[in-house]
Design brief:
- It is a single chain.
- The protein has about 725 residues and is an alpha+beta fold.
- Helix content is about 15%, strand content about 20%.
- Strands 5, 6, 9, 12 and 13 form a five-stranded antiparallel β-sheet that branches.
- A hairpin with a 7-residue loop joins strand 30 and strand 31 (about 660-665).
- It is globular, with a radius of gyration of 34 Å.
- The two termini are about 45 Å apart.
Amino acid sequence: MMKRFNFNAASKALLGAGLLSLMLAGCGSDGKDGQDGAPGEPGLTTINIDNATTLNANFTDASISDGSVSVTFSLTNANGVAVVGLTKDYDLRFGIAQLTHVVDAATDTSAGFDHGYQWQSYINVVKQPTDVPTNVDNLHPSAQYQADVEVAKSCDDCLKDNGDGTYNYTYQTNVANVTTPLTVTYHAEDTQRATLELKLTSLAVNAHFDWQPSSGMTTGIQSRNVVSINACYTCHQPDSLKAHGGRRLDLENCEACHTATSGDPESGNSIDFTYMIHAIHRGSERHTYDADGNEVADPYKIVGYHGALEDFGEVNFPQTPAANCAVCHVQGSNAPSDAALFTQEKSNTACIACHSEKPSAHHSSTDCMSCHNAESPYAGTGSAVKRHGDVLKAYTLAQQMGVKVTDIGLDANSKLTFKVQVLDANGNAVDQSFVSQSSRMVVGWDIDKDFPAYNDASYSNRRTRLSEGSYDEATKTYTLTLNNMNMPTDAKGKTFEIWSTLQACFNNGGYGVDDVQLTACSADGVRTVYIKQDPYRFVWGDTGVDDSGTVATRRPIIDANKCLGCHGKAIVHNDNGVNCQACHTPDKTLTTDNSYPGGKVPTSFAFKVHEQPGHYLKYAGLGSGTVLKTDCQTCHTADGIALGRDAQRVWRYGDTTNGGAEIWVSSDAGACLSCHQQYLTDSGKSHIETNGGILDGTSADDVKQRAAETCNTCHTPAQLLKVHGN
């Protein structure tokens, strides 16, 4: 690369004369070019922070000398371009914490407890209760310690801009002299964590750095990486996990600030990260017992800025059973380095956060692990791992079972009949005593569309209980007949399915019970769990199964794995997979809901799911913070929002302006109304009707005769994703 130089006029004249003489002298040479010069230094490419539209922050170094903490960090945009111009006057904050082995001291009433390694913030303040809400139960205002961060603008010379996208910051807090309001003793052998949070008008970025000062090492040091934020993203969307006004984003920063000594002064509740997360996710199921042994609600509540009450008792945690710790505590490949810590019985805090303190003869202290441990459990208790495992084991055993369907045909009255066996994990038929006789088998057809028209074959007529059939004791086989269902006149060539909502019975485990196992349904205290089995699908011939037919498949609209990732082993009812649409068809009947305009709402699967609190957050202040209203692909497959799927599909809605009177809606319009009906404007209605949609059908047939939708001409999946903010 040639270097460029600037010369004045005199220099240019002298250089010109020299070059001329060299050229003349060179006329008799070999005429070869000279060698290329060495490459020059590349020029720096930077962008000013005020012009950055994306931002990343990374610590590159940290040190502690005589208690003074110094860090180096860099700012870049998404393309790796250095971001310069950061000053102390931006909203820039730093935290510093230590990972310390915490052991309670023994007292006359306690043997002490080993909490393992816990984060301790060097920066703490005392907060007095202010703006305490009135007429709110279970608030116990009291002064509380809170971990804090320091603000860069409070120091004139702590921040240095190196001009190349790197910065140096020297902390205002000296970690060797922390005695108030909490004493934190610095140990150079302990892991230290520096945190950064920077908030601009439309951007926010967090960073953290873990190191051991005594060695300078950043790997192979003590850590406490128990959960990953990627596990949170199974249910939550990233934008819904921006806390403190969108300033705090990273789990590591949360852990360093929400320490065991931190509390909320207005409620008196702990905001320790372990306690807070468990208590929040216990949601509406969090309860305790009064002195008389009566169960009472104990919702987790926090009072935020200017007395804003956050009542997490309104949270409906969708994981069933909630005892499944592995939902958040993911182990195995790509798991956090300390993922197994939650099984090591070092957190009374986690127990009390979910279960609350129980003032009874058996729970006189908060040292849960003194009884609930694997090494020496108190008689009849068992460890937390066992007790949670008891809850989950029935689901595991039920999933190993199966349902076998055979001998499909018609009886003398032309009613559909078939045989069913319930199988154990080894494929052996299970006796009827272990299967709930009130559980049902369900039939459907037109599965490639939206199942049978409700007026032709309602869900209640397409199902039958085991108790309504006959049972062969020798072969452990049921013969079931759909006496209330008429076969469709055009059945030949259609794809049918028979699917199970059968339930097996199990004991509950718990105190003094070693094993959870199949148990006779007539026994006291049993619980029923759905047996997981894919629907049996077949093509109907003249009088039975046409083995030569090709089974039609339903276009994948939702990803069932995404549903189960959030909801776990059970969703609402009939929890053999995600077969909700087999009952909740688009034309299913209306139900009363006085909170909805018109007072009547559909019971279609699409409507129930789109309007479910936590799924749909755009209007009405639902604000659960779980799923963003615009992220269609949280639940849908990539092709799951394509319009024009079935022109003959019709939807049943209530008229929002006429007391919920029944109206019928065309295929694509009905899909849109499952989110937008109560907010549809006159111009929106006009747009739908101008493009062939029907919003005021008097019957399903009326809609089919008049509908001529052309929505998918413009509203492609890509366009729909774009307008919904994906």
